[in-house]
Amino acid sequence: MEKVQFKKIISQFVEITDAEWEVFSSYLTKVVLKKGDYFFKHGDTHLSLGVVIEGLLHSHYISLAGKMHTKTFVWENRFAGAWTAIVNNDPALFSCEALEDSVLLTIRGDKFLELMDKYKNIGKLAQIYTQRLLKEREFREYSSLALTSTEQYELFKQTFPKIRGRVPQYLIASYIGISEVSLSRLKKI
User: Fold this and answer.
1) Do 157 and 138 have their domain in common?
2) For the chain, where are the E strands, in sequence order?
3) I want to staple 102 with a disulfide (CB 3.0 to 4.6 A). Which of 33, 94, 167, 182 is the partner?
4) Tens digits of per-residue pLDDT, 60-87?
């Protein structure tokens, strides 16, 4: 069941052959996370790339002062992982935590890279995924640097309509870069 869903997700981006899918799917592992469990933590190595089948994840950085800064949210049918760390064989720079009980289908990063080099369509999937991450990052940088807190909150509501009610207010505030009290004020405007 989960593998069928994973294949449908991949098929939105690239046409994968039956032979490629047979090899690729043989490396998929189901990971079940309880609320509060981590898919990976800052500093982890030997990382995996996954697709959220069910649930909601929260990626975040922790500053040297110990303050959490929300990077993004990952929900059903979306990819989760520290792609830059996987590609460069570096430790993860951020953590990814389950906000809800979650199910992912994962593939080890090193295995994905091996398959990416061996199979044209898996390589194309990696290219599309990288382009998508760069687009999201650029958009996130723009919103953080060029928009007011009010505009960022409105953008959050537009960008994340499917999960808005599932994300605690303190994490929405962290994503925008304001305090929970300031978010409360924004919502009254």
Assistant:
1) no
2) 29-33, 38-40, 48-54, 56-62, 68-75, 79-80, 95-98, 102-108
3) 33
4) 999 999 999 999 999 999 999 999 999 9
Range(s) of the domain holding residue 155: 147-189
Q: Which residues are paired to 175 by β-bridges?
A: none
Q: What is the pLDDT of residue 13?
A: 87
Same domain, 36 and 78: yes
Q: Which of 36, 168, 25 is nearest to 101 (CA)?
A: 36
Cα-flanking dihedrals φ and ψ of residue 171, to 5°? -80, -35
CA distance linking residue 94 with residue 172, whole number of Å = 17
Q: What is the CATH number of the domain that holds 80?
A: 2.60.120.10
* Tens-digit pLDDT profile for residues 100-139: 999 999 999 999 999 999 999 999 999 998 999 999 999 9
Query: Model's pTM, two decimal places?
Result: 0.91
| Structural contact between residues 160 and 73, judged by C-beta atoms closer than 8 angstroms | yes
How many CB atoms are located within 10 Å of the residue 49 CB? 21
Same domain? 114 vs 179: no
Instruction: Please state the separation of Cα 129 from the chain's center in Å.
Output: 11
